[in-house]
What we know:
- The chain has a single domain (21-144, 185-235), classed as Rossmann fold.
- Helices cover 39% and strands 26% of the residues.
- It has 9 helices and 9 strands.
- The strands form 2 sheets. A 7-stranded mixed sheet has the order 3-2-1-4-5-9-8, sandwiched between helices. The chain has a two-stranded antiparallel sheet with strand order 6-7.
- The N and C termini lie far apart (35 Å).
- 42% of the residues are buried.
- The mean pLDDT is 97.
- The protein binds S-adenosylmethionine (SAM).
- The site of S-adenosylmethionine has 19 residues, from helix 1 and helix 3.
Amino acid sequence: MSKEKIKQAYEELAESYNALIDTKPHNAYYDRPNTLSLVGDVQGKSVLDAACGPGKYAEELMKKGAHVTGFDQSPKMIELAKQRNNAPNSFFVHDLSQPLDMFENASFDMVICALALHYLVDWNQTMQEFYRVLKPAGRLVISIEHPFFEYIYFKSNKYFEVEPVKCTWSGFGKPIEMHSYRRSLNDCITPLTDNGFLIEKILEPKPIEAFKQADPRHYEELNAFPAFMCFSAIKR
Length: 236
Ligand SMILES: C[S@@+](CC[C@H](N)C(=O)[O-])C[C@H]1O[C@@H](n2cnc3c(N)ncnc32)[C@H](O)[C@@H]1O
């Protein structure tokens, strides 16, 4: 049920998300610079951008010389990713919770998955598939909503449960109801380590200076408490 609602919400959001993504402070000055700091040298590397949205990460990674393939469940997002990157054959519609049967084992040097895993009730199959399609010693880079932030924001009193939650987003034009799943820190890490990944780095990001001018109130808040969390992990 939530799955369809999430898909529908992103179909409705796609145009304004794409229009704002280059400069929206939480993405441009908080998530992306921090997550990309974990990426390293991707010149000539093959990268899978899982839940790529309108292809902004793909754009940044292509600028760094990577060969990027991206997928997202939202057909509108995929259309925008193709246009943004002038790469009609590099993006396709696919559900992150389903097997990546279109790819052989060991196809990619890196998988990146930014701000999307909280839309899945179960991360296990997704992590198994990320592991399978990565080359040996390939790297997984993810960003997620920080589990402690979500626990407070959603006023939870069931820390250890995977809880369906919802809130209203008003930063993309007309308000939109967004469903997702909140989980413990343990439930963010164990699906990676149980499926063969070695956690390389955990980053509790701080906003970059450009955030301050764009949105001083959230700049202060994010310097006091993190809203997101970034990880890199290696296929053992
Ligand atoms: C917050 S956006 C992030 C987009 C992109 N990764 C970025 O950071 O710019 C979340 C994306 O996840 C996608 N998404 C949500 N659930 C998904 C699923 N089950 N399979 C594939 N994509 C999904 C949405 O359609 C949306 O494009």
